[in-house]
Amino acid sequence: MIQEKYTNLHPKFFWDFRFDEIKWEAYKMVIARIVKRGGQEEIDEIIRFYVHEKVIRTIRDEIHFLPSNAIDRALKFFPQLKK
Fold first, then answer.
1. Cβ-count burial of 41 within 10 angstroms (0-12 exposed, 13-18 middle, 19+ buried)?
2. What is the DSSP letter of 65?
3. Are 81 and 56 a contacting pair, CB within 8 Å?
4. Does the predicted TM-score (pTM) go above 0.85?
């Protein structure tokens, strides 16, 4: 569930999109991109925006590929996940 219409994520994470046209309902893309490239502040923002349980479920069950370094980052940010 999206808490409000807009997120506070910086456009630099979405350099290959027109930021003002991003469909934030495409949560898998947004979450994967932030796990790959964001820091704690961005992780906190996707949790605020999409809700913690949805972020965890998406990383665990719906994103089918993350590079090894992104998996390590996800485990750091979300210790309840298992490799």
1. exposed
2. -
3. yes
4. yes
